[in-house]
Each structure stands twice: as structure tokens, then as C-alpha cells.
Amino acid sequence: MEQFASGWKRHYYGKGDVSVYRLNRDGKTPAGQSPVFGANVLMLTYGDAFSPTYATGDNTGLIATDSMKNFIQRETVNFTGYDLEGYCRFIGTAFLARYPQVEGVQVSAEEIPYAALEQGAAGFFPSGPERATARVELERERIVEAVSGIRGFKLLRLGGSAFKGFVRDEYTTLPDLLSRPLHIWLDLDWRYTEPAAAFNDGQIVARARHIVRDVFGSIESGSIQQLITRIATRLLEETPEIVELDMEANNRTWDTIAERGDDLGIYTEPRPPYGVLGLRIKR
In terms of pTM, does the model score above 0.85? Predict the structure, then answer.
């Protein structure tokens, strides 16, 4: 179920899983940007003009979702930026301008990342696994909401992660862990002090990527909860544009097959049950 910052909607519709790639092949891509811009898009629209199609099947004012898909893909050629937030705003604004019966539109996008094989090379490969995300809701004359995030971090630490001193009773089988090889998945979303702050040419997304990796790799922690709190705290400290941060980590630490002291270990993928740890922090 989709939700809208502007409030409850009696009905909405749109097109999802729209993939699009813009390739700048002129060799003039700005420093620090990639000539490969890839996104997977979900666009949802709402308005009273679409009520007849729900009530009576009258599609007179309805824009076909196939037309929405074509609009997204073809209009991408006119987008000159490199950030998802700006892209969502561009598509939403252009759609509202083209179809006056639309009262509001919410455009969400997930990055489809490609990295260069080497500096200045013409070859690229799928990168990640983490992917930037953005969601922008617009109504005529205003930006209702802008949210950014990064989904799908997969992070491995060889040691320096403890977990001990927790409740022990008849259900406890886990031993105290003093320096485990920690493997987590991590998602984070954030909201801005004001919607306009979201449009920063991807600088805040790049900063968040750096902070997540730096904190994970540099601190020793007594729990995953402590680890994600440190990430969130630093991100708020260094990014005054962020007013609220949501994080969710999955404990995907590998199962131990054999260990030789603290120096060598053999591991396998964990069993299906995994720990879920969430944090919401506001400025």
C-alpha cells in the first residue's frame, strides 16, 4: 500500500518498475559524475478527474499507465542532472504540466548503478549492491515531500563486534561473543528540514555512503544497535539539512563451520531467521 505525505487518497494509480538508462557518450560528463544514469521508477497520480473510471468504467480523463511509462522514458532525454531527487522532481513537474487533470503526482526512483572499469574507460559494470533512492511528491505550485535514502548495504567486518551480557534464561542458546565476524544488511531513509534541501546534486547521498562505510569499518561496537546509532548520530552531526533519519539493519552474520582461534575461520550463509534492528532519530 502506498502512502502520501499530502494525506489519505480515495484512489490513485500509476506505473511501476519502469527502467530507463541515459548514456552520455559525448565525453563531456562533469567531474565526479557518471555518464551512465540508470533508474527504476514508480510514478503514482491522483485527482478527482479519475473517479469516473473507478465508479463507472468511464476512462475519458484517464491517462493510460502505458502512456505514463512512455512519458517517463522519453522525457528522461530532457533531464540534464545526475541526482535522483532532481530527476523525480523533473519527471513529476513535466507530467503535471502536460496533464491538467492530475492534481498530484508521487515519483519514486531507485538507482541502477554502473561503475567504470577504469578511469576514463568506455567500459562499465553493475556496481553496488547498495542503491540510492528518492521519492518526491508534487502538487501544483508546491513540493509536498522529498525523501532520500540508500538501500541494500551489505557490510562485513572481520572482528571488533561484540555481543554479550544479554538476558539469559531457558530459551538462550547463544554464547557471549567478544569479537565476531559481523555481516549486516542496512537500509536508511532521511527527510529534510525543508523539501528544497533535497535538491543538492547528490552531495548528501555521497556523504551518507561515506559515513556508513567509515563508521562501520572504524568503530568497535557492543551491539548492532550501538553501531547504527553511531552512524545516525554522525550523519545528523555532519548534515544539518537532515531532520529525521530511519534505519533498519538485518543481522546476517554467517554461521560458523570451523575456527582456528581468532586467526582463521570457515563460515557459511546463515539460516533463514535473522535479526531485525530499527532506529528512528530526529534532530
Answer: yes
